[in-house]
Amino acid sequence: MTNSIDRRKMLQRAGGGFGILPLAGMFQQQCKAEGSSQGPHFPAKAKRVIFLFMNGAPSHVDTFDPKPKLTEYEGQLPEGMKTRGNGYMPSPFRFAPHGESGVIMSELFPQLATCADDLCVIRSMHTDTPNHEPGLLLMHSGSQQPTRPCLGSWASYGLGTENENLPAFVALCPGMPVVGPQLWSAAFLPGNHQAMSVNTSDMKLDSLVAHLKHPSLSRSEQREQLDLIQHLNRLQLQSSSDDELNAHIRSMELAYQMQSEASEAFDVSNEPQSVHDRYGNSTFAQSCLLGRRLLERGVRFVQVYYVDKNKQPWDTHTDNDNKHRTLCADSDKATAALLMDLKERGMLEDTLVIWGGEFGRTPYSQINNDKNKAKPGRDHHATGFSMFLAGGGVRGGMMYGQTDELGMHAIEDRVHVHDLHATILHLMGIEHTRLTYRYSGRDFRLTDVHGRVVSDIIQTNTT
Amino acid sequence: MRVAVTLCILTVMAQTSIVQADEQTDFFERKIRPILVEHCYDCHSSEGADIEGGLRLDSRDAMRRGGESGPAVMPKQVDKSLLVSAIKYESIKMPPEHKLSDEIVEDFVKWIQLGAADPREESSVPAEVVHSEIDYDLGRQFWSFQKPERHPLPYHDWMDWCRTETDHFVASSLRTNGISPSPTAAPNILLRRLSFDLTGLPPSREWVTRVERLAEEDDYTQAVDELIGSASFGEHWSRLWLDIMRFADDQAHIVGSNEELFFPNSFLYRNWVIDALNRDMPFNQFIELQLAADLATPEDKDDDVALGLMGLGPKYYRRSSPEVIADEWEDRVDILSRGLLGLTVACARCHDHKYDPIGTADYYAIAGVFASVEMFNRPLDADRETKNKGEAKNPRDAMHILRETEPVDLAIMVRGDVNRKGPVVPKRFLTVLSSSEPEAFQNGSGRLELAKSITSPDNPLTARVFVNRVWAKMIGRPLVGTPSNFGKLGDTPSHPELLDDLAVRFTEHGWSLKWLCREIAMSATYRQTSQTNEPGLDADEENRLLWRMNRKRLSIEQLRDSMLAAAGKLDADVGGHSIDPSDPETRRRTIYSQVSRLKLNPMLALFDYPDPNVHSERRATTTTPTQKLFLLNSPFVVKTAAILTERLKEETDGNEELVEQAYLLLFSRKPTTDERQLGIEYLASADDQKKKYVHALMVGNGMLFVD
Q1: pLDDT tens digits for A228-274?
Q2: Of residues A191 and B12, which shows the higher confidence score?
Q3: Rounded mean pLDDT, B596-603
Q4: pTM given for the model
C-alpha cells in the first residue's frame, strides 16, 4: 500500500506539488488520487454513510432497551450514585418485538417497527464522559479534545470522493449544534476533508448553498476562467508548496464543479409531494430527505443533526416522557422513511445508516426543582446506552449486547465508541489501525490505540 | 462549561458518647426525631445514596456541620439555623412536598432555643459531603499565577542573526533543538506582511514603488513606524478587541418587532476603541476606562462610552427573571475572566473549578460587581426623550453603557440554583490572584477596584494574556496555544521566557500596543521567510519553535478591504455607523460591518467570523467550497473585480502593462516571467478577457495568503 506520508512529502518537497502537473483534466484525477490516500483496504460493504445524530442524547430505556425491572425498583435510589430525583423510573412506554426477527422497540417507533428486520440495535454502547461537549467530540472524533479529525473526515481522507462535483462529506444542521464546526472538522488532515456544512433551517436552494451561479458568465467561460485561477495557483505552488494551499486549490475546483450539480442535488423541491409526505415536513425530516439525495449522488458521508431552537432537544432533564413522545414521533417517521426509501432504491445494502446520540439517559429520574416533580426528567448517562445501525453490510433484525437489568451499565458484548468507529470504518473497507496520518511527529488514527471491530454484527458474505 | 461538583469522602468514625436521658433529650425524642425521620431522612441521611445539598440530618454532628448552604442547626441561635428558615419556607422550602404545621415549626424553634440537645451519634458509614477544598497556596505555584519576570538573554550560536531581545529567546530554543532560523524574506514580501499585519490593508502605492529599499534597516524602520502611525492601525487592531468582547449591534432574540434591547449606537463604542488604539492609550488605562470610566474620570462624561465593554453585552430573553439575570452575570464574568485574565472563572458558577484554584465564592465575588450595576441607555444629549430614571426612551437616542445601582453582595447559588442560597460573598477579586485573602471592594459596585486589580503590576496574567494575543496576530501562532485559558487545561507556552520577558517589557513601556507591535515587527524572527525547508519540517513540522514565519490567511476583513483597496474604492474615513459589508456599493472598511447576534451577516459567517454572542478565543480557519462559490459568483466580488478592471484599463496601455499593474495593485509585487507570460497569453486568447483575468487574480491563493 502507498504510504501517504511519503507521497505527501514527496509532492510537497519536490518543489512541485500540483505545479508540476498539467492543466484541468489531469487535475481532477489528481484530486481524486490525493483525496483517497489510504483505503480501501478490502472490499467495502458500505459505500456511504448517513449518521442521524440525536443531539442531547436519547433515553435508551424509553426507546430500544426495555427494563421491566425498573418497575420493581421504582423509587429506589441507585446504589452509590448521587442523584437528584426519585430513584429508578420505569418507562411509561410499551415495548414489543417486531418483524420476523423480533427486534424490540418501544411504542414510540411505530414506523421504524416496520423496518425491524433491517435494524441492528446495539444495546451495550458505552462512552467515557456524561458531559455534552466532550461526549460529542468523542462520538465524532474519538477524542474529548477539540483538535482531532472527525469520523467523516477520516472516511473522506481514506476513501476520497465518489463524485468530484460534490463534497465527499456534508454536515446538515439547522444553525449550529453544541461545540459547533469542530464536530465536522478535518483538524490536521488536509483541509478538503472537512465537511461542507449546510444550514438547513431554510431549505430553499439559495439559502442552503449561496452563490451557485455567476451573474453573467456561461459555464464554458467560467471553466476557462477557473483553469486560469488554478494555473495561477499552481504557479504559486512552484515556489512554495504545502497542504493548505493545495486544499484551497481543491476547494476551488470543487466549488466550480458543484455549480452544475449542487443546484440539482440540494434542491429538495425536485422531490414529488408523496416523498415529502412520507418523510414529513420537520427540519429533521427534510434534512434526511436532502441527505438521501446527496448519498444518491455520491456524497460519501452525511451527518444529519437533530437540532432545533434548542441546540440539544434530546437533552430531556425535565419532562422526559412527553419530550420523547414528540421527538421520537418526528425522528421515527423521518428515519423510517429514509430506510424504506433507500431500500426501494436498492441503496440500503451499501448505505450504512446510524442513529443515536452522544450518550444515553439515566434509568433513574432527575428532578431539578419543585415545579418539575410531576414531569421528571432523566440525566446524562454514559455507561450504557443504545444506538442502531442499518444497511451497509450490517446484520439486520439483530439486537446486540446488553445492559444490566436496570439499564445502568453495559455488561454483555460491550461496544465502546472506539469500537463503533472501528466497525464503521471496517464496513467502509478500512482497517482502522491502518488509517493513519502523521502529524507533529506522531501517527494519529481515529481510534487512537483503541477500537475493536464488532464482527458479530457484520453480515458474512454468502458468496 | 460547568464542572462537576468536587466531592470529598469523609470518613467519620464513631465516637463514644454519654447519653443523658434528661428532659431536653426527651423533647428531642418525642417531638423532633420523629419529624426528621418522617420528613427529612429520605433525602438527608446516609441511608439514602442521595444526600441532597450535601446535608445530612441523621446525626447531631452532621446537622450542625450542615451542607452546602451552611450549618442547619446552631444551638440556641434560631436565626442562624438554616433548618428553621427552611421549614418556615423563608429561604429554601423544606420539606418540598408541603409545609410542616406551625406547631411542629414551633417545636423546632423551642428545641434549638433550649440548646438543640441531640443524642444521635455519627454512624461509621462514610458519607459524601460537598465542600470546597481549594488549596490556594498550592494553586498559586502554577506557572501562570507566578509573576512574570525578565530573563537574562540566553547565550547561543546565532547571536549575529538576532535583531531584538525577542530573537535571542527564539534562537536559543532553535539551537537547543538543532534547527536553523530561516533567511530574511524578500522586500516585497516583507512589505505586504507588515502592511497587512499592522493595518489590515495592502501597502500603499508609494511604498510599493520603492519596495527594494526595505532591505535597508532605516527604511524598514520607517515603514514600520509609518504603518503603526497610520489611522488604519487602530481600525485593524480594534478587530482583536471586538472579537474578545463579543461586539454586536443587537440581541440573539427579538420579541415581535420590539428592538428595545438592541444597540443601534454600538458604533460609538467601536469608534472609541479605534481611537484609543490609534492614540496608543496604555492598555491598563484602556481596561480601566472600559470597566469603570464613570468612576475613574467622573468629570469626563464622553469617555463613558468605553463602558460598552459590558454595556453592549447580551441581554437575554426573560431578563428580569432571577435565572436569566444570573446568566447575564455569567456573560460578564466570562468576558472579564477569559478575555482579560485567560481564566475560565465562569466554570465556577455552580461548583468549584475542577482544575484551577477558583472557588464558587470567587465567582460570586466577581458576579457581585455586575449585580451592582445595570445596563443603561444614557441619552446622547439633553434633547432626547427619556423615560423613568433618566434612561433614553428610544435606544437610538442613547449611548449604551452601565451605571451603578445599589451595591449588593451575592450569596453563592448552590449548584448554580438561584433558589438555593449559600453564604454571602463580599465583592472582591479572585483569591488565587491575591497574595492572601483578598480584601472586599469598598466603593459602590467595586468596578474601579476590580479594574485596578486586573491592571495591577502584581497581576501575573493580564499582560501575559494580551501579549500572547498580539503575538498570535502578528506571528500567526500564539505562544500559548489556548489564548483564553492559561489554567491547568490550557497549553503551556512554547517559549515561556520570551512570553514573560515580553509581558514585563510591555508593562515597562507603558502598556503600549504600538511598542509591542513594533518590537515584534522589528525582530529577525518576524522577518524570516515563510518558505519551508527540509530540516525544519523534519524537526518541527508545526513550526512551534518558529524556525520560519507562518504563512497567514487573510481574514474576511482583510480580504474584503484589500479587494476594495485594489479597485481604488476603499473609503478611508475612520469611524462611523455600521454598514452592510456584502453590499457591492458599500466601500467602507469591513470593521464597520453590522454585527448581528440574531442573524450574522452570511458573508461574515462564511469566512469564520466568530459568534458575537460569546467571547471568541481565536478565529477558526476553514476552507470550504462555499467560500469559493462566494469568491467566484457573489455580486460583491464580481462587481469589485469589474471596477478594478475598469481602473486598470484606464491607467494602463496594453496588456503587458495591465498585467504588471494588476500584480502591483493586488499583490504589491511584479509578476514573475511565467505569470507575466500566462497573463499576456490569456488576455490575447479572446476578446474581452480582462474582467475574467482580473477576477481570477483577485480570488486566487496569491490574494488569500500573506507570506
Answers
A1: 999 999 988 866 557 788 889 988 988 998 888 888 999 999 999 99
A2: A191
A3: 85
A4: 0.74
CB neighbours of residue A418 within 10 Å? 21
Say yes or no: A340 contacts chain B, CB-CB below 8 A.
no
Cross-chain Cβ contact A211/B630 below 8 Å: yes
Poorest-pLDDT segment among A6-10, A365-369, B332-336, B393-397 = A6-10
Half-sphere exposure of residue B446: CA atoms within 13 angstroms, side-chain side: 22
Report which of A195, A200, A201, A165 is spatially closest to residue A183, judged by C-alpha positions: A195
Q: How far is B700 from chain A (nearest CA, A)?
A: 6
In total, the C-beta contacts within 8 angstroms joining chain A to chain B are 154
Counting Cβ atoms within 10 Å, is residue B437 exposed (0-12), middle (13-18) or buried (19+)?
Answer: exposed
- Rounded distance between C-alpha atoms, residue B547 and residue A264, angstroms: 48
The confidence score (pLDDT) of residue A193 equals: 86
Helix (H) / strand (E) containing B277: helix B266-278
Between the alpha carbon of residue B385 and those of residues B257, B382, B397, B398, the distances in Å are 21, 8, 8, 10
Contact A159, A295 (CB under 8 A): no
Alpha-carbon Rg for chain A in angstroms:
23
> Quick check: A355 and A397 in contact, CB under 8 A?
no
Say how far residue A10 (Cα) sits from the centre of its chain.
Answer: 33
Closest partner residue to B1 (CB to CB) among A133, A240, A258 is A133
Q: Please answer yes or no on whether B96 and A373 come within 8 Å at the CB atom.
A: yes
Distance from CA of B18 to the nearest CA of A (A): 32
Of the candidates A250, A273, A320, the one whose C-alpha atom is nearest the C-alpha of residue A90 is A320
Chain A 356-375, CB below 8 Å of chain B: which residues? 368-370, 373
Question: Is A214's Cβ below 8 Å from some Cβ in B?
Answer: yes
pLDDT at A152 over 70: yes
Chain B residues with CB-CB distance to A442 below 8 A: none
Out of B626, B631, B705, closest to residue A209 by CB: B626
Q: What angle do CA B672, B674, B677 make, to 5 degrees?
A: 105
Q: Is the pLDDT of residue B47 over 70?
A: no
Whether B674 and chain A come into contact, CB under 8 Å, resolves to yes
Task: Please write the tens of the pLDDT for every residue from B413-429.
Answer: 987 888 888 899 999 99
Interface probe, candidates A131, A169, A217, A229, chain B, greatest B C-beta count within 10 A: A229
Cis link prior to B635 (omega < 30° from 0)?
no
- Partners of A11 on chain B (C-beta within 8 Å) are none
Looking at residue A146, its pLDDT comes to 66
DSSP letter, residue B579: B
Is there a contact between B120 and B15 (Cβ–Cβ < 8 Å)? no
- CB of A179 within 8 A of CB of A262? no
- Chain A, residues 217-246, CB within 8 A of chain B, namely 217, 221-222, 224-226, 228-229, 231-233, 235-236, 238-240, 242, 244-245
Q: Contact A213/B701, CB-based, under 8 Å?
A: no
User: In sequence order, which residues have a C-beta less than 8 Å from that of residue B59 and are 6 or more positions away?
Assistant: B120, B121, B122, B123
Cβ count near B386 (within 10 Å): 16
Q: How confident is the model at residue A29 (pLDDT cuts 50, 70, 90)?
A: very low
* Predicted complex ipTM: 0.77
CB contact under 8 A, B705 and A247: no
Q: Is the predicted pLDDT of residue A6 greater than 70, yes or no?
A: no
Which residue's entry shows cell 465567582?
B363
pLDDT at residue A327 is higher than 70: yes
Measured between alpha carbons, how far is B322 from B131 in angstroms, rounded to an integer?
Answer: 25
Across the interface, which of A225, A226, A251 has its CB nearest the CB of B623? Answer: A251
When mean pLDDT is compared across A136-140, A439-443, B301-305, the lowest value belongs to: A439-443
